[in-house]
Amino acid sequence: MRRITRIATVGVASAALALSATACGGKTSSDAGSDGADKAAIAYDIGGRGDQSFNDAAYAGLAKAEKDLDIDGNEAEPSDGESDADKVQRLTELARAGNNPVIGVGFAYAPAIKKVAPKFPKTTFGIIDDASVTGKNIANIVFNEEQGSYLAGVAAAKVTKTKTVGFIGGVETPLIKKFEAGYIQGVKDTDPSVNVLPQYLTQPPNFDGFSKPDLGKAAAQGQLDKKADVIYSAAGLAGSGAIEAASKAGKWNIGVDSDQYNQAGLANYKESILTSVTKDVEDSVFNLIKSVQDGKPQTGEIRYGLDKDGVGLSMSNPAFTEMKDVIAAVDKAKQEIIDGKITVKTAP
Questions:
Q1: Global pTM?
Q2: Among the residues of the chain, which ranges form H helices?
Q3: How far is CA 331 from CA 150, 205, 304, 340, in A?
Q4: Which sign, positive or negative, has the C-alpha torsion 50, 51, 57, 58?
Q5: Interstrand relation of 311-313 and 273-279 (parallel, antiparallel or unpaired)
Q6: Are the CB atoms for 27 and 96 separated by under 8 Å?
Q7: For 302-334, what is each residue's pLDDT tens digit?
Q8: Domains defined for the chain, CATH in brackets
């Protein structure tokens, strides 16, 4: 897999064009997309590959496609504090290089995809976690995060001994508020006496809350000091700091996006990761790439919820699966959500 890094700064457009010409065959907008899904690319969200969470799940989908579909996978990393113009340039270079599809990992790519997609009508553009930007060649991959988070709330309410649990959101955006809303509802529906401590690390336009582990660590320590014994973090790379803090305190973590119990970078803390709220980002990326290769590219809203196992709770930690009463409560809540007996809120 070829790795394209730091195609970000508008001021180095000539260098990026040179990279496109030498490393990617010098595709232009007129022939982009003519190779079908022979090449596919993902442009990472804040934190980049190695976040043990959202971006790594997207990478897993690209890696699977490279192996199973015999495609050439390409990746592009974000830069700290980058602008929408930087994202526009990154997506333009990936499309010009003949990658199809080009997938933006995260809602932050919406303005860039809105500008770039019309210029490359033969290329399919995917965007994960955003349905606001639409077009004939745009696939909006979205998830019912609130549903998986509800199940996390059920589990947290069942295992807490202090009757206090925490929620750490990376950046206070509508997307992360969905995680908070579902979690709090799940907790309160299970045990109204449990206190939930919600906290956000940063406010837009500061997105450090998705990339700075020290911020997550400090926030978790504050919640531990308030007697929280289960902490659910939806904070990307910053969440790893929260996981470290709770683990060292001997308390439970609930991970996010990927099955964080199985993430190599978190191996030292895995026993504290009770479960994770998973989003099937891996299969969503793979499915989009395969659809292009099959000549039937996905477009429009593609939604993954509990009914399609697009979100859920991981069952990797034996300590969790042995909690029969907790698993029974989670399974019951899952079925009631699927059956429409429980409607999960998308805002607190």
A1: 0.86
A2: 13-23, 54-68, 84-96, 110-116, 145-159, 174-190, 213-225, 239-248, 281-293, 318-321, 324-338
A3: 12, 38, 18, 14
A4: negative
A5: antiparallel
A6: yes
A7: 999 999 999 999 999 999 999 999 999 999 999
A8: 2-143+282-306 (3.40.50.2300), 145-279+317-338 (3.40.50.2300)
